[in-house]
Amino acid sequence: KNQVEQSPQSLIILEGKNCTLQCNYTVSPFSNLRWYKQDTGRGPVSLTIMTFSENTKSNGRYTATLDADTKQSSLHITASQLSDSASYICVVTVYSGNTPLVFGKGTRLSVIA
Amino acid sequence: DTEVTQTPKHLVMGMTNKKSLKCEQHMGHRAMYWYKQKAKKPPELMFVYSYEKLSINESVPSRFSPECPNSSLLNLHLHALQPEDSALYLCASSQPGQGKNEQFFGPGTRLTVL
Predict the structure, then answer these.
(1) Cα distance from A16 to chain B (closest Cα, Å)?
(2) How does pLDDT run across B28-73, given as a tens digit for each residue?
(3) Nearest CA in chain B to A108
């Protein structure tokens, strides 16, 4: 069964600190993995997207890594800001034209002053 | 234009009402999706349209009726909904056949059924 597991479920950090979110997946055949940021009551916004041949991808203060052998990904947030408070969702696509995405349950990040 | 728009932003309806949610994109994408998202849960796929034809229906009750009048528009017609249908409804689009098949999400419609 295709699954995406994320940890931790929730995280509270102080403004300015770094943090790392984890994603493990069992999806086959694998096409790509993306990290989305979703503010409460809003649609998800894509942060990074990686295929199996890409090990790392950065987008400003966000850096995602992918280990296709161990089927693990991480999202590292540097110098966190209050506006980083959101849910971060790991999503894996099964290789196909319109195959639905497999969503993780997300990590709820709260950045406090 | 890399945006998916959805209207309305918020909708409150009674169980006997008929309403419609609308989604529009002008990225030339030929696949469009409806998702339902409850609080603190990931989005759940409802329908997929590919080249204006319904290709996936994830066993959604018939009180939800999708429509794709053209390649840029996607509607979700609502009738006789239940309070448990209250959720955030997300529309997304992508281009079939592209390697990464990246889906772009709209801002969502917050639906409350009384």
Answers:
(1) 25
(2) 999 999 999 999 899 999 999 999 999 888 889 999 999 999 999 9
(3) B40
